[in-house]
Amino acid sequence: MALPFAKGHGLGNDYIVIRRRELPAPSAQQIRALCDRHTGIGSDGVLLLDDESTPFTLRIFNPDGTEAEKSGNGLRIAGAFLHLHGRVRTGETFPVALSRDTVTMTVERELEDGALLIRVEMGRATFRGSDVGFVHDEGGVVNRDLELPDGTIASINTVSLGNPHCVVFVDRLDREDFLRRAPQLCTHEAFAHGTNVQFARVIDDRNIEAWIWERGAGETRASGSSASAVAAAGVHNRLISPGSIAIHMQGGDAHIDVSPDYDVVLTAPAVIVFQGELLHSIAAG
Questions:
Q1: HSE on the CB side for 9, CA within 13 Å?
Q2: Measured between alpha carbons, how far is 16 from 226 in angstroms, rounded to an integer?
Q3: What's the CA gap between 59 and 6, in Å, rounded?
């Protein structure tokens, strides 16, 4: 049973793209099999795209089989796929419907390496605990100390962009510290549905460095929604000013525009790297 697919990445965060008509209702087992880097195609997630609907619709799956509400990298990869297949043109603004909201996107231009620079209007960031399923506090969560299962403490900031984020600002990014505390935050009982985690260091008023631990995926080289959350939290905490902010991740840089009212726009590259067919029974489930 052949399953047509494409593979793309945004700053090293890679996704499989499958048209919805090819796999209308994937099971968690199928998603896990597709994402397996040894026996499947291998990726940080699966994008199920309906490019025949108006607007285009997109479902996003994590490699553990769970479904995500939003992904800035996934959206841009879907945009690159739509552009590759002539469904959108450079400079054209188009909507994409997600499970909880609809975003507006634009393919800005082609870059020298063949990637596309894509702009995504991510929506308005909010900082209420209730918006991310934080069970200890429904109001604004700003630098709130949270005890972790191993007894350490994290000073957290909750951010929602239609999906949950937990931003921890640090003076210095340390690998041992990140690998110890970030996974505990991701699955902490205080978050009813889990959360994406970002450890961030403010470099100056226009630049922040961030490491990312994604819900359902683990550490990733980049994340568009995480970069957006970090920038919004930085403005909300008055660590940086509203405007254009560069978020430096392990996979590369994303540029985030944050308005004084916390409307967030993400601009970063994405590219489709290959297309093919899966030739064995993963497609059948």
A1: 14
A2: 20
A3: 15
For the full predicted model, state whether its pTM sits above 0.85: yes
| Average pLDDT estimate for 70-92 | 97
Domains of the chain: residue spans and CATH: 3-121+270-284 (3.10.310.10), 129-261 (3.10.310.10)
CA–CA separation, 121 and 257 (whole Å) = 9
Question: Residues in the chain, how many?
Answer: 285
DSSP string, 131-171: GGTBTT-SSB-SSEEEE-TTS-EEEEEEEESSSEEEEEE-S
**Closest to 48 in 3D by CA, of 31, 29, 73:** 31
CA distances from 280 to 42, 74, 284 (A): 15, 25, 8
pLDDT at 279: 83
Q: Determine whether 113 is exposed, middle or buried from the number of CB atoms within 10 Å of its CB (0-12, 13-18, 19+).
A: exposed
Q: Cα separation of 285 and 268, whole Å?
A: 34
Query: Kind of pairing, strands 164-169 and 116-124?
Result: unpaired
Alpha-helical runs (H) found in 161-263 = 175-186, 224-236
Q: Which two tokens stand for residue 192?
A: 């009813």
Render pLDDT for 243-273 as a digit per residue (tens, 0 to 9): 999 999 999 999 999 999 999 999 999 999 9
Asked whether the beta carbons of 266 and 256 are under 8 A apart, the reply is yes
